[in-house]
Amino acid sequence: MDIKKILSIALIGGLTQHAFAQYTEDAFNFSRTETSTTARFSALGGQQTSMGGDLSSIYGNPAGLGMFSRSEFGFSIGLNSYKNNHTFLGNTGTDNVFNPTINNIGIVLHSPVSKYSGDTKKGLVAVSYGIGYQKNNYFKNELNLAGRTDNNGLSDFFADQANLDGAIDPTKLGSETIFGAYHGFLIDRSGNSYVPNTYTDSDQSINVMRKGGQSNIDLSFGLNFSNQVYIGAGLGIASVNYKSRETLLDNGDFLYDIDNPITPAPPAGQPQYPEFNPRRSYNANFYRNYDTEGAGVNFKLGAIIKPVDEFRIGFSFESPTYYDLTDNYYESLSYVSPYNERIYREENFPMTYNLRTPLKLNGGISYIIGNKGFLSADINYSDYSTAKFSSNLKGTDRNVNDGIQQSYKDVVNFGVGGEFKVSNEFAVRAGYRYLADPYNTKISNNDNAINRYSGGFGYKVGTYSIDAAVMVYDSKDGYNNYTLSTGDQPYADISKTTTRFSITFGARF
């Protein structure tokens, strides 16, 4: 099947409706990145806009590079733990997922200018250059769902898709898998519409496996003017690698009435339905595979002002990331028909498109408490409804962008954190961050805002340092393998507890 043919069948036809929803969701997922930080700033809650002097400045506010007084190298490793508690068709379950990561690795090269001029109080004092790799989004997850639906099983989905397709002649249905559902009698014709050809109850078992992530290679520099004003800029080369595997097993019975069959009588020579067993079972396997990858570019500008030694005020701007993405969607349907015919149909939909993520604005303020520590607060703004999808299919672009604007909204996130030096070598840290609900259309009846708590410590000996952090938060999510026009498809409510551990090793030179 040609993707252009399928995506132009109707405004919302069968697989078009599913493609629109998938691209809308991907636009949001690829936009909701968080700048990677060292374990030191992770323990503070991620606040780094106004502090500076940390490797996190490579990835966040590049003006903070101007606060370096020496060159430095460091890398951060981590472990992400996800606990998914879910309810599906009346059944509850839990899935645990662990994901070891390299969070970031970077180097800052400090170049003092004052050694040539001899003046450290006026004009350009120093320039610092940074290059680093950061992982700023993680997709790894797994769900295992099972339950019994009294209505709206897989045959209802395919009947719904066939009716949305609008082809009265089944041989002209715009999808191989929909035609496979008709050919094997999961669905049938009734007048001018398609209807399920199964009993309403069925057992469903779903496995979802996702992996991949997003990352940036950042090239940044920061300037130090008179040890009071710091200005920086950075260029980011972004990449996306997302893979998802979804398998639905739907086990039920074909609808067959001995006195008034919906399906035609078996052809001559084929096994007849035994009169003592009017219900004949099926076990349908509906498989979906999503692969998306690509690259993009973004840039950052930032400034930090130190009006007095105790206060720092920071601002940064992160441009949209302009992605060039390739998506390959594959699906297959397999089962045995009532006449013992092996049904197998598959589809492959390649798609190339561009995605522009929203811009991000950040502000922050820090208060330095002598040589005992500091307090820092950040505020961040982004409007997810401004993400832009574009391809060579204008109808698809219009529907996906309408879906983005209707589904998502602008958010204001904020956080606060602090560090206290127990001694010259040892410091403890704690932080809090609030991530506002980005959904216009709710995933569930719950508020999808996130309250994230963090803490950690750091130890320095000579020119070496080690920092550790942990972040813990709960979030709400949801999942449905397919959608129905009526909106009452089987749905899983998911409560996810995320725990992230990170350790940063650093060396100054």
TrEMBL record:
Keywords: Cell outer membrane, Membrane, Signal, Transmembrane, Transmembrane beta strand
Entry keyword Electron transport: no
Top-level division of the source organism's lineage: Bacteria
Topology with respect to the bilayer: Multi-pass membrane protein
InterPro entries the UniProt entry points to: OMPP1/FadL/TodX (IPR005017)
Cell location: Cell outer membrane
SUPFAM superfamilies attached to this UniProt entry: Porins
Pfam assignment, any one: Toluene_X
PANTHER family: OUTER MEMBRANE PROTEIN NMB0088-RELATED
Protein known as: OmpP1/FadL family transporter
Organism name: Pseudopedobacter beijingensis
